[in-house]
């Protein structure tokens, strides 16, 4: 019996070996290589010298990079907040045992199955002043109606928010719904007996119980914020001008368009550290709570 267990254990290690090698070489290896390039004077090709933090100094003296950080901060706050709110409301709606629940779940979750490129193109057409909502309003008789955010430098970033919230809210809905289905029915019975309004039960009791679902949704949404690129390119190309520039587009432009892999690598490491700074504390707190609960 002991020998059989040992054979099973060895087989399990062999089975996970390819994935372990992938993580070590493809992920950790490329991270270390990027970090090394970021402290070199690399331009078109990698260089083996060491220039310290000069690439990072150049990066944060670059107005386009600073604008991209400003844009992604505005985008991130709005995107995460709206996705959590809309996703939670959709989950509450479906949790009321509505008719055609399965069909509604599919409808709300379907946009998440689409690529960000497809989403960007769809919303580019919808928001195009000559083809989309503005033109429809004009044909309906509202000649003075104006909805040209996608070509407005001050509003372009908000069109990215609209498109990506439409796409990602269904994911949050699915996560929240799984949490709501885990709420004990006795809580609702007690609330009805005590005459407590449903909104108060959701706010004071249910939402705190959805902590794991909310934190999971937050991490997934935050990673999507850092990675946002496809929707920007499909909708605005970072424009008008650089009005909707984001860090991922900045990195891709300097990596391939301007052949400056040193600066692009420095920007990549900054994004990586940003993700770690947000995700690591959440992971630590979550594990600590789990250990205390055990």
Global structural class: mainly alpha
Count of all domains: 1
For the terminal residues, how far apart are their CA atoms? Answer: 31 Å
- Give me the CATH superfamily: MetI-like
- Using the 3D structure, state the CATH architecture: Orthogonal Bundle
Low-confidence stretches: none
SS elements, strand count: 0
Shape, principal axes of CA atoms: globular
Number of helical elements: 13
Strand content: under 5%
Kindly provide the radius of gyration, computed on alpha-carbon positions and rounded to a whole number of angstroms. 24 Å
What's the CATH class label? Answer: Mainly Alpha
Helix content: over 70%
Mean pLDDT: 85
Element string (H = helix, E = strand): HHHHHHHHHHHHH
Largest sheet: none
CATH topology: MetI-like fold
Topology:
Layout: H1 2-38, H2 54-60, H3 63-94, H4 101-113, H5 116-127, H6 133-139, H7 156-180, H8 185-194, H9 198-209, H10 211-227, H11 230-235, H12 247-257, H13 261-293
Structure description:
This protein has helices at residues 2-38, 54-60, 63-94, 101-113, 116-127, 133-139, 156-180, 185-194, 198-209, 211-227, 230-235, 247-257, 261-293. By secondary structure, it is an all-alpha fold. It has one domain (64-293): Orthogonal Bundle (MetI-like fold). Helix 3 (63-94) packs parallel to helix 7 (156-180), helix 3 (63-94) runs antiparallel to helix 10 (211-227) and helix 7 runs antiparallel to helix 10 (211-227).
């Amino acid at each position: 019996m002991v020998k059989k267990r040992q054979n099973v254990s060895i087989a399990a290690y062999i089975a996970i070996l390819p994935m372990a090698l992938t993580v070590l070489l493809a992920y950790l290896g490329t991270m270390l290589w990027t970090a090394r390039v970021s402290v070199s004077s690399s331009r078109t090709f990698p260089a083996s010298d060491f220039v310290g933090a000069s690439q990072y100094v150049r990066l944060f003296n670059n107005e386009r990079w600073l604008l991209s950080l400003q844009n992604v901060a505005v985008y991130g706050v709005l995107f995460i907040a709206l996705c959590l709110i809309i996703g939670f409301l959709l989950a509450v709606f479906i949790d009321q045992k509505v008719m055609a629940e399965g069909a509604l779940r599919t409808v709300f979750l379907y946009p998440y199955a689409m690529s960000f490129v497809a989403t960007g193109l769809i919303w580019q057409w919808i928001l195009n002043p000559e083809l989309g909502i503005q033109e429809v309003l004009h044909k309906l008789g509202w000649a003075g109606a104006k909805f040209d955010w996608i070509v407005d430098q001050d509003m372009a970033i908000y069109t990215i928010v609209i498109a990506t919230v439409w796409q990602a809210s269904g994911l949050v809905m699915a996560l929240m719904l799984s949490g709501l289905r885990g709420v004990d029915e006795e809580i609702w019975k007690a609330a009805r007996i005590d005459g407590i309004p449903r909104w108060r039960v959701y706010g004071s009791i249910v939402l705190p119980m959805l902590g794991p679902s909310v934190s999971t949704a937050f991490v997934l949404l935050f990673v999507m914020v850092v990675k946002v690129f496809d929707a920007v390119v499909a909708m605005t190309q970072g424009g008008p001008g650089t009005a909707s520039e984001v860090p991922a587009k900045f990195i891709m432009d300097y990596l391939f368009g301007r052949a400056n892999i040193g600066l692009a690598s420095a920007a990549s490491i900054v994004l990586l550290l940003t993700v770690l700074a947000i995700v690591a504390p959440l992971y630590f707190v979550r594990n600590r709570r789990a250990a205390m609960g055990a």
